[in-house]
Amino acid sequence: MAQTHDHDAHPHSDHSQGDHPHAAHHGSALSPMELRVRALESVLVEKGYVDPAALDALIETYETQVGPHNGARVVARAWVDPDFRARLLADATPAMRELGVGGRGGEHMVVVANTPETHNLVVCTLCSCYPWPVLGLPPVWYKSPPYRARAVIEPRAVLAEFGLTLPAGQRIRVWDSTAELRYMVLPMRPAGTEALDEAALAALVTRDAMIGTGLPEVGA
Ligand code: FE
């Protein structure tokens, strides 16, 4: 697939869908994308190309078992266990496997840690490589040409559009995921969370915080 340099496209025109993946479930109205998916599924089932039960099982797996909660457990463990953190940063794949996290699409994981000096941001400029077993389904914006092109060229502007304004002195490092190597960001543990246990800490870790387009949400 060719690399896209679509600088003039509207930045994150589908941003709201990606940012609020559950919003559509709160109302009865389906988004245009959901309508298209539903129509496509109907045709495929009608023609006998797919078994609806198999589709449901696959989707349920990714919605309930595989998801950002896996990555969040990894982050929380790294926050409370310095030895695990060291193993994670040295060789992420086996470290994650200690927590039962891993599998297809996460065979070669690299974890990059945010520091006061450096904020990390993950993109796949070529297509949409994403650590599925760690973060679940990729958000729509992650796969969009504007994000893929602009994350590399003007990461600070892209982060601002996500509502994330970093200190001027904190540099941004952009990591380009591939099919062979997929990155996850280890965010910094937020101040004021000293009393929280591991499970409570994991609840602060959002998907975006592990892509680098957000930070852990304290009090969310
Ligand atoms: Fe890709």
What name does CATH use for the topology of the domain at 68-211?
Nitrile Hydratase, Chain A
Task: Round the mean pLDDT to the nearest integer and report it.
Answer: 85
Order of neighbouring strands in the sheet with most strands: 1-4
**Which structural class should the secondary elements be placed in?**
mainly alpha
The first-level CATH class of the domain at 68-211 is given as Alpha Beta
Instruction: Output the radius of gyration.
Output: 18 Å
Shape: globular
> What is the count of helical runs?
12
How much beta, percentage-wise?
5-15%
Helix and strand topology:
Blueprint: H1 15-19, H2 23-26, H3 32-46, H4 52-65, H5 68-80, H6 82-90, H7 92-97, E1 109-113, E2 118-123, H8 132-135, H9 145-153, H10 155-161, E3 171-176, E4 182-186, H11 198-202, H12 207-211
Parallel strand pairs: 1-4, 2-3
Helix pairs in contact: 5-6, 9-10
The structure holds fe (iii) ion.
Fe (iii) ion binds at residues 124, 126-129.
Structure description:
The structure is a single chain. The protein has 220 residues and is mainly α. The protein has a domain at 68-211: Nitrile hydratase alpha /Thiocyanate hydrolase gamma (Nitrile Hydratase, Chain A), CATH 3.90.330. The protein is 44% helix and 10% strand. Helix 5 packs across helix 6 (82-90) and helix 9 crosses helix 10 (155-161). It is globular. Bound molecules: fe (iii) ion. Fe (iii) ion is lined by residues 124, 126-129.
In short:
The protein is mainly alpha-helical and 220 residues long. It has helices at residues 15-19, 23-26, 32-46, 52-65, 68-80, 82-90, 92-97, 132-135, 145-153, 155-161, 198-202, 207-211, and strands spanning 109-113, 118-123, 171-176, 182-186.
